[in-house]
What does this fold into?
Amino acid sequence: MLGLGKKDLRFLLIVLLLTLAAPILLNPFAEGSAMAQFNAGYPDLMQRIAIFAIFAVGFNILFGLTGYLSFGHAAFIGIGSYAMVWMLKLLTMNILPGLILATLMGGAFALLIGYVSLRRSGIYFSILTLAFAQMSFNMAYSVLTPITGGENGLGPALGDPRILDAAAANGTIPEVNLFGLSMRATYELDLAGRVFQFNAGYYVCGLLSVLMFYLALRLFRSPFGMMLRAIKCNQHRLNYTGLHSRPYMLSAFVISGMYAGLAGGLMAAMDPLAGADRMQWQASGEVVLMVILGGVGTMLGPVLGAGFIKYCENIFSKINDHVLHDWFSIFPKWLENLLVTVVHPFVGQGWHLTLGVLFMLVVIFLPGGLIEGGQRIGRLIRRKPDAKGKAPATTPAE
Amino acid sequence: MGILEVKGVNKRFGGLRALSDVNLSVQQNTCHAIIGPNGAGKSTLLNCLVGKLIPDTGSVLFDGQSVLGRKPHEINQMGISRVFQTPEIFADLTVLENVLIPCFAKRDGAYRLHAFETVAAERDILAQAEQMLRDVKMWEKREMHAGSLSRGDKRRLEMAMCLSQRPKLLLLDEPTAGMARADTNNTIDLLKEIKGRGDITMVIIEHDMHVVFSLADRITVLAQGTPLVEDTPDNIKGHPKVKEAYLGEAAH
It folds into this structure.
């Protein structure tokens, strides 16, 4: 069904269920308890995880399959965001036209940048993409201010035409919506001391990310995906096998650019303000971290990486000295102070230090990322019954 | 006129004259061997045929069309496949995928955005690849990563990749170099069988005279970038000039 094998279909269903149930699953700790700060089930964070999952899954199509490392994908995020906001300003507060335009613009710019950058490979390709992204960032920040809003950013304003919408009645900017369903609409469920928030914006992001995940899954299993893996493996052989590697690369680049454009559009749809800083090289680097941390070239890896980084960013950066003193208050005062001093640089503002250390540990000990970690644990658990004398499970060839 | 016509090809690398005035005519559905001492320009000549090198002067016609200036993938699509001296395979892909890729290239051409079709649904291509793997006796290894194969198996896989495209011209660059005797004999048998089908032309570069004399219909001896003689294997064996230039003690 859906062009997927049985295993993939089950996999996709699990992803869909997890996405739908995320507001419940990510809120395991009771409101007001000491652990409540580790809850992730609030709309803003879940939206961001879903959006960055789209970005990372798309980036993985390029980096994971072909091995070409782009350092400029944040440019497409920014372009997607601007496209979205302009649609919100000119056309309608309905996000659909904006999402479509954001995806197309991401693809169009990727075609341009990819066409030039793909004339080189390896480090030169990475540098070229980085240069293009920084150029885009600087232009958005300076000369293109009439289009991008420069350093103030771009957002919908009261005086915008919005030719498809009825005139705003009460002098406020109408809410961003999808066919009338406000992105801010949230249904709160109070249950067992926990507040579960089912937010419309999250479900738009979440369902779109499942759709994009499905499309990526199809691509991974397609002859096209096989060609991309062959490029990573031995481009020389591929050329002597009668295949032109450049258009394959360019297609992969454009597809991943469209994913990034869509992610950028969603970002602006959830929080209708597009700023140039979204295009900066840090943002391009972040998606590389996500994909490597999760597991390059795997289906679920980029999603895990995106979720992991966005979750940790949110949680770690909220922990301040006050919280630390709370945690360590069971120890004698001198030990408490010592522990707080040691942990302090790794939390709050300094959470990037934690990310850096985690990243190094993963690259050194788990080159396959979190996915490999999961697989290793899975194998350990599975090996135990074997030791007790049970026959090991035989896997059929197909 | 032969299916492959090389006329007056020269190639210089700086001061070194790698090929000087090479003429070669390969008849359709024959096996033509090129032999010669190390540095005679055999590999350079082969590289000129597949678009890896462009000769300084001269012409290379395949099937009446010039191959000069064409990219490797274009030349392959004309019907020329090449087996390399060191096996060039897709090491991270499975054996089956290695054979599927040339099958797709043959059917779909140099580029096709088939991103939403599934490999599993391509029954014709799968059947074709399966048949090929059975022919080279690698079917039971289809799920293995190609990189983990033995050296002999890698060569066989590369040959299977080339043959699965049903090329008009197969170029073999020392296909048995570094192989054990048994593997070499297997390769000879395989190539003989393919040749027996009568629809393929082969150009083979080889040092192993056993391989050359088992397969070749014509032999060209290359020395210092120039063809010395071209004749049938029987005549080459007894040719005094050849003995002097190359075979020497090997042809006793």
User: Anything to note?
Assistant: The radius of gyration of chain A is 23 Å. Chain A touches chain B at residues 3-5, 215, 218-219, 221-227, 229-230, 232-234, 236-245, 247-248, 251, 255, 397 (CB under 8 Å). The longest strand of chain A covers residues 186-191.
